[in-house]
Amino acid sequence: MTGARRVRFTGPRSVEVAREPVPSPDDGEVLVETSTSAVSPGTELLVYRDEVPDDTPLDETIDALNEPFAYPLSYGYAAVGVVAAVGDAVDPSWAGRRVFAFHPHASHFCADPASLVPLPDALSDEDAAMLATMETATGLVMDGRPRVGERAAVFGQGVVGLVTTALLSRFPLSELVTVDCHAPRRERSRSLGADASFAPEEVPGAVTDRFAGDGRSDLSFELSGNPDALSDALSTTGDDGRLVVGSWYGEKRVSLDLGGRFHRSKIRIRSSQVSRIDADHAGRWDKDRRLDYALDALADLEPSSLVTHRIPVAEAADAYRLLERNPAAVQVLFTY
């Protein structure tokens, strides 16, 4: 080992890769040597652009991220690697295991074995790195509760939107439509099972032309991260329909017209975020069960097909510039 590397956000649009000694695990820890980690384009670009509200914990359920947002900081939550060393109080069988960790981007890190997800041999590192994305999409679909024969619309076909579309395509929906600004993403969407995909300027006309009856969806998802898309999603959702908002807008403000039709529509708008299990599911589901489902779904859906760029971690700053400027960059993986 020649030393450890760790990605750090040092200010708005400022990223460095720090060099530091390889850490040694405490008695109850293991040392993980990372092979790849997935960049979350939505949340990590908010961090990169300084668009996270001040004093907001980035994730209260992940120990490494349970601090108010402030520069400098390390971020990320999708690392795959191998246990390179174990502490004196850890079962020696952990040594050599391939694992997933909800941990910021770093070449080496120490962790409690209980926080790690052992990976099946048949699952590739690149598919495994998408576990957090798959768990997020699973939670979104669970909160949407798709029903037989429903008409569904997904706004935003970034990586979370695409994986959500892939999951929804497994349901016996009558119609699955997606919306995104970028033609390559719309094409990917159709390849994953969407019946049709449209540009935002085609909403509501082309979208509602697809839907029988009142021309609106029974179930809509807003996953674009763009506040303007929420208005489009609301206008596309039919009376008594459901609108699931999975976007985190950070400090961007949302303006909605809640007069007129909405006042009598009985549309249910609900937030969805992966950190919590909805109370309606809590009697039968917990995070471990949802994570197990997501792990199984990785093998079936092979989301690594959505990886567009593999970038050495030493060039991390280039990766964030790429994600900000190039809409064809759907999923970036750091290699170590």
TrEMBL record:
Q: SUPFAM superfamilies per the record?
A: GroES-like, NAD(P)-binding Rossmann-fold domains
Species whose genome carries this gene: Halogeometricum rufum
**MF (Gene Ontology):** metal ion binding; oxidoreductase activity
Is this entry keyworded Oxidoreductase?
yes
Assigned keywords, A-Z: Metal-binding, Oxidoreductase, Zinc
Q: What is this protein called?
A: Alcohol dehydrogenase
Under the heading Gene3D superfamilies, the entry gives: Medium-chain alcohol dehydrogenases, catalytic domain, NAD(P)-binding Rossmann-like Domain
Q: Which InterPro entries match?
A: ADH-like_C, GroES-like_sf, NAD(P)-bd_dom_sf
**Cofactors:** Zn(2+)
Where in the numbering of this chain does the Alcohol dehydrogenase-like C-terminal domain appear? 160-276
Q: Where is this region: Disordered?
A: 1-28
Which family is it part of? Answer: Belongs to the zinc-containing alcohol dehydrogenase family.
